[in-house]
Design a protein that fits this description.
mainly beta; nine-stranded antiparallel beta sheet
C-alpha cells in the first residue's frame, strides 16, 4: 500500500486542506481529505479492466467548504434529522440549528462535515481526529472523534468511527459518499443501478422526513430491495412520500441487527460497467439517498461539469433518524467515558 499526501488548498482562515492518496497493488486508489474527513475519490476497474473514479466530488479543495451535498464527508455529531431541532438529553432540553426545512440535519451547518480534522498516516491507514467542544452546535459535552480509513489489496475500504465524551450526548456518525459506478463524470443518472438490501422493514416518514415511529413491511412495495431491483423502477412512486422527496431518501432497518456485529446490509451494482460495491456495517440500518437535490447545489465537479439530480446514490450506514426523540428506537446516547465504535466496509469488485 502506497500513501502520499500534499497540501491541496486552504480555508479562508488559512487552515491547510490536505489531500491523501492511498494506492494498492491492483492500481486501485482512494483519495481522502481532512476537510470533513471526506472520501474525495474511489478508483477501481470495471469488468474490462478500465479504472475510473466512481465517487462524486469536486474539482478543487475550496469546493468542499460548506457544500450542501456533504459529498463523501463524515457527518456528525448526529447524522440525519432531529425533529424541530429539539431534543432532551439527561433532563435538559436543547435547541439546535434549523437547517433542513423545519428540522436540524447532519449536526448543523458547522457540523463535523464542515470542519478541518487533524490528519495523520499510520502505516497503511489514514486517521482523522477532531475535538468537538462542549456546546458545539449546542450539543452537550466535549467529544473526541476519530475517522479511520483502511484500504487493502483486495479493494476493501473500511471506515471506523470512534468517539468518546465527558458528558452524556447523542452520537450518530456516517459517511456521505455518493456512488455512480459508471464513473462520476459519465453524465448518466443512477436509475439503471441495481440495489439489494438485507432489510425487510423501513421507517415510515412524515411529510417533513421525520420518522413516525412505525416500521413498514417493505414486501411488495417500491421499497422492497430484498432482491436486486433497478433504482429507477420505484423512484417516482407515491409510497411513503418517495415522490414528495423527489426520490429515495429513506431509512431501511438491517434484518437481525446486533450491536457491535459487522453484517452485510447492501450491494449496489451497475450492469453497464459490471462494477459492484458490497456494503457491510455494524450500524442499525442505512439511509439510501438518490441525490435528489444535486442539481444547482454542487460546485464544479472533478470532470469539469455540474451534477444533475440523481447523479449518484449514497448508502449512509447509521442509527435511526431522530432516535434521540424516539425511546423505542436503538439509543444514540453515548455515556461519559464510553467508547463509540462503528464500522462501515465497502468491498469493491465486479460481477
Amino acid at each position: 500500500m502506497e500513501i502520499s499526501q500534499h497540501v491541496w488548498g486552504s480555508t479562508p482562515e488559512g487552515e491547510a486542506i490536505i489531500l491523501y492518496t492511498m494506492r494498492n497493488s491492483r492500481g486501485s486508489e482512494v483519495q481522502l481529505t481532512n476537510m470533513g474527513a471526506a472520501i474525495v475519490a474511489v478508483k477501481f476497474a470495471d469488468r474490462e479492466g478500465h479504472i475510473d473514479d466512481v465517487a462524486l466530488g469536486y474539482r478543487d479543495a475550496a469546493s468542499y467548504i460548506g457544500d450542501g451535498a456533504c459529498s463523501g464527508k463524515s457527518v456528525g455529531r448526529v447524522a440525519n434529522r432531529i425533529a424541530g431541532g429539539r431534543m432532551t438529553v439527561d433532563g435538559t432540553e436543547y435547541r439546535l440549528e434549523i437547517n433542513n426545512g423545519p428540522n436540524h440535519n447532519h449536526g448543523g451547518s458547522k457540523g463535523f462535515a464542515n470542519r478541518i480534522w487533524e490528519g495523520r498516516v499510520e502505516t497503511n491507514r489514514v486517521v482523522f481526529a477532531l475535538t468537538s467542544e462542549d456546546g458545539d452546535q449546542n450539543y452537550p459535552g466535549e467529544l473526541h472523534v476519530e475517522a479511520v480509513y483502511d484500504f487493502d489489496d483486495d479493494d476493501s475500504l473500511e471506515v471506523t468511527y470512534l468517539a468518546k465524551g465527558d458528558r452524556i450526548t447523542p452520537v450518530n456518525l456516517t459517511n456521505h459518499l455518493y456512488w455512480n459506478l459508471s464513473g462520476e463524470g459519465c453524465g448518466r443518472d443512477i436509475h439503471d443501478h441495481e440495489l439489494r438490501l438485507n432489510c425487510s422493514r423501513a421507517l415510515e416518514a412524515n411529510e417533513v422526513q421525520i420518522p413516525t415511529g412505525r416500521l413498514l413491511d417493505v414486501a411488495g412495495t417500491p421499497m422492497d430491495f430484498r432482491t436486486f431491483r433497478r433504482l429507477g423502477d420505484g423512484i417516482d412512486s407515491e409510497f411513503n412520500h418517495i415522490r414528495d422527496f423527489r426520490g429515495y431518501d429513506h431509512f431501511w432497518v438491517l434484518d437481525q441487527w446486533k450491536p457491535g456485529i459487522l453484517s452485510p446490509i447492501a450491494e449496489l451494482r451497475d450492469p453497464r460497467s459490471g462494477r459492484r460495491v458490497e456494503v457491510l456495517t455494524s450500524q442499525a440500518g442505512a439511509m439510501v439517498y438518490t441525490g435528489n437535490w444535486l442539481s444547482g447545489g454542487c460546485p464544479v465537479t472533478k470532470s469539469g461539469k455540474y451534477y444533475d439530480d440523481r447523479a449518484g446514490v449514497a448508502i449512509e450506514c447509521q442509527n435511526y433518524p431522530d432516535a434521540v426523540n424516539h425511546p423505542e428506537f436503538p439509543s444514540v446516547l453515548l455515556n461519559p467515558g464510553e467508547l463509540y465504535c462503528q464500522k462501515i466496509v465497502f468491498r469493491l469488485g465486479t460481477y
